[in-house]
Amino acid sequence: MAGVKSSTDHRLKWLGNFCLLIFIIWTLVPFYWMFVTSLKKHKEIYGTEATLWPKDPTLESYHTLFFETDYFLFFKNSMVVALSTTFMTVLCASLAAYAIARLDFPGRKILARGMIYTYLVPQSLLFIPLFAIMVAVGLTNSLTGLTLAHLGFTIPFCTWLLMGYFLSIPKELEDAALVDGCTRLGVLFRIILPISLPALAVVAFFSFTLSWNEYLYAIVFNSAPSVLTIPTGLSNFVVEDVFFWGPIMASTVFTVIPPLVVYFFFQRWLITGLTMGAVKT
Amino acid sequence: MLERRLQGSEAAGRARTDQAVSGERLTTSSTHVSNWLNDQRVIGTLFVMPALLILAFVVVYPFLTAIWMSFQDKMVGAPAKFIGFGNYVELFGDRHFLKTIRNTLVYTLFAVGIKFLVGLAMAMVLAQPRRLDFIYRTILFVPWAVPTIVAALSFRWIYDDFSGLLNNFLIGAFGMQDVISWLGDPDYAMASVIAVVVWSGTPFYTMSFLAGLKAIPNEMYEAARIDGANAWQEFWYVTIPQMRRVFTVVVMLSTIWTSTNLVIVQVLTNGGPANTTQILPNLAYKYALLASRLGIGSAVNMVFFPILAVLIYILSRRMLAERE
């Protein structure tokens, strides 16, 4: 009996290993192909055979990308938007989450519910009217407008996430400070936020990644070359059709670096974020 | 649970306000300002104000406008005209639009279904005890952090007719005779699009399912084993029932986001060939941004909204109820 059991376990283990290998290949192939293509010479890329490794590795494509396109400008714009979104999200979400979790004011229950609703409303439903609104108030072709739009999906999720965290902090911690005459703002910044650093890390991580990766609003609101972010810039490369796959792949390699760096640092929080609320895909 | 907590802290808050009020009567007016600043109603309102204003501007108001706009003939930069159900009548009178609805259903069903199965398989494999398991986990989650546009572009290059990896691989490894036009052939285009959606969307399922699997108490498996259950029975009678809650939440969330995401379709095929991969959000984009017809574009999105609204309602109830 025991023998049968362990042989099943053994087989399951090897089946698992085999599947794991397939999954890893499936996940990594696009990255590999991206990277290899970016190192190939133009002629080799469009040759009759797809070589698995460049015959004559070159940085030509990177040279084209950096010196013949505005990629650095796109990169800078994306960085500005993602960092502003992250900062504003942490600030607004902390204040709102603290108020909803701790303070007695009219409408807090509706707000708690409203945060989920706003979080679940899909972007595709909003981009058309939001575009008309942005045109009306003159916020198209601006990084401010794009940041505001991104806050529309980062704030609800992050407020919801922080609310859960704040509710788990014992009230006694702040009561003493309040009795000593500390203001609510003081309590939030000196007591609550310092012990909520793990949750704030999750919030910052999600805001940065979601904003950096966002495509639809970016492409709808901004078209002037000076305010293009990476997603818009990249898709223009393809649409214009004068661009070649070498530099495009070089640009994708560079584009995945910031989110991947953030991801490798913060990935252990990902599961934490999941258990606290749902993660947006 | 959340409600109860809110009520609890509300009661405590009221007690504290009362204290502050009675304290105020005894003290001089110099502390009046600080008491006012400690009033929870004032502070609470001030604290939520920034988030509230931003969300009103970029979510609530646009959402209401979207509904209203779908009943209007509205062009960019021109005054709107109310036309009742005119946009909807025009849409449903169009054969292509009905096909778009069908495409969206097929696309969502297959994308969500495959992501579910692959995600579950990945999670079960990752849940097996293995040395260096965090490395494998990190790798399989990576597509989550990759911008969708990057995933779409790199697959578009992999699908390239003559120089792409896929065709060259099939020719080299399996002696395929003719190249397949993965994105240009109506028979393959939808499947090719769905494959990319699966690549980029599966990590969300894997992560959620892995968290769910780890939350199943080991005693349940031990009890099943004592009762003589084999591996398959353990999976069927312990894992699946225990995961039901995670399954529904993940599938509902993913259905909302998959059915409304147009990035991958737009970059890979832009709805072609011959509208075989046209889905609602991409059609809405075309109407609104390329033809500048904002009204009918909004109407396209509104067609699926009843389904989404039901999902959003159920999900929000669950999320509120589960918060502890």
How would you describe the overall organization of this protein?
The complex is a heterodimer of chains A (281) and B (324). Chain A is an all-alpha fold and 281 residues long. Helices cover 79% and strands 0% of the residues of chain A. Chain A has helices at 2-38, 42-45, 60-68, 71-102, 108-120, 123-137, 143-167, 172-179, 184-195, 197-213, 216-221, 230-240, 245-276. In chain A, helix 1 packs across helix 13, helix 4 (71-102) runs antiparallel to helix 12 and helix 7 (143-167) runs antiparallel to helix 10. Chain A starts with a helix and ends in a 5-residue tail after the last helix. With 324 residues, chain B is mainly alpha-helical. Helices cover 76% and strands 1% of the residues of chain B. Chain B has helices at residues 2-26, 32-38, 40-69, 86-92, 95-127, 133-145, 148-158, 165-174, 189-214, 218-226, 231-260, 263-268, 280-290, 294-302, 305-322, and strands spanning 72-73, 81-82. A two-stranded antiparallel ribbon of chain B has the order 1-2. In chain B, a hairpin with a 7-residue loop joins strand 1 (72-73) and strand 2. In chain B, helix 5 (95-127) runs parallel beside helix 9 (189-214) and helix 13 (280-290) runs antiparallel to helix 14. The radius of gyration of chain B is 27 Å and the shape is globular. At the A-B interface, helix 1, helix 4, helix 5, helix 6 and helix 7 of A face helix 1, helix 2, helix 3, helix 5 and helix 6 of B.
Low-pLDDT segments of chain A: none
Work out the helix count of chain A: 13
Total count of strands of chain A: 0
Report helical residue fraction of chain A: over 70%
Oligomeric assembly: heterodimer
List how many beta strands of chain B DSSP finds: 2
What's the main sheet of chain B like?
2 strands, antiparallel
Low-confidence stretches of chain B: 1-30
Shape estimate of chain B: globular
Can you list the strand order of the major beta sheet of chain B?
Answer: 1-2
In percent terms, what proportion of residues of chain A is strand?
Answer: under 5%
Instruction: Give the strand content of chain B.
Output: under 5%
Helical fraction of chain B equals: over 70%
Termini separation of chain B comes to 6 Å
H/E element string of chain A?
Answer: HHHHHHHHHHHHH
Average pLDDT of chain B, rounded to a whole number, is 86
Q: What pair of chains forms the biggest interface?
A: A-B, 111 and 116 residues
Structural class of chain A: mainly alpha
Write down the overall geometry of chain A: globular
Rg of chain A over CA atoms, rounded to whole Å, is 24 Å
Summarize the helix and strand pattern of chain B as letters: HHHEEHHHHHHHHHHHH
